[in-house]
Known about the structure:
The complex is a heterodimer of chains A (113) and B (115). Chain A is mainly beta and 113 residues long. In chain A, 0% of the residues lie in helices and 50% in strands. Chain A is built from no helices and twelve strands. In chain B, a hairpin with a 2-residue loop joins β5 (42-51) and β6. The N and C termini of chain B lie far apart (34 Å). Classes of the chains: A mainly beta (113), B mainly beta (115). The interface between A and B is medium-sized, with 26 and 30 residues.
Amino acid sequence: GNSVTQMEGPVTLSEEAFLTINCTYTATGYPSLFWYVQYPGEGLQLLLKATKADDKGSNKGFEATYRKETTSFHLEKGSVQVSDSAVYFCALSEGGGADGLTFGKGTHLIIQP
Amino acid sequence: DAGITQSPRHKVTETGTPVTLRCHQTENHRYMYWYRQDPGHGLRLIHYSYGVKDTDKGEVSDGYSVSRSKTEDFLLTLESATSSQTSVYFCAISESNSARTGELFFGEGSRLTVL
């Protein structure tokens, strides 16, 4: 079956540091890949996505590139801010909307001023 | 923002009692989902619906049932709550025209504590 593996953290960084959160996946087909973010006390919201190999998703300074050869979708940001503190979830979908997404366990990111 | 309302937002109950969580959407989206979120497990799919009266089981469906009698409402029922069902429950919806991309819109969650 499908699965997503990501570092759980917590990951603690200083403001303006470079961020990488690793995500690798296992899927039977050619999934779409997603990063969702959950701010304290809120539900998840889509951060970025990529639907085919070599696509790069980007939003709010975050980027991730769909690497089929390494089955990875690592999240990066060049300079993090305190407001980026949240839990980040990597997820995949095989494309059929009926059965939703398969999520990783989430990575708790803490940015210190 | 997608119009998704979950109720109740917080509930404390005792083992063995029935509990129903409600998800209400104003978007007329076809697909609706219930997930539970637990530390160390991320989000796991409980049940989902692909239309009125059309539902199916997810990864962790044991002990849960669902019903969807109207497009806008998706109910999650714990017939006899257990302490292992203490969790935060999230409802999500998907637009029919983007269901194949898998993008979901989430409610704010319902925190359930079973004593």
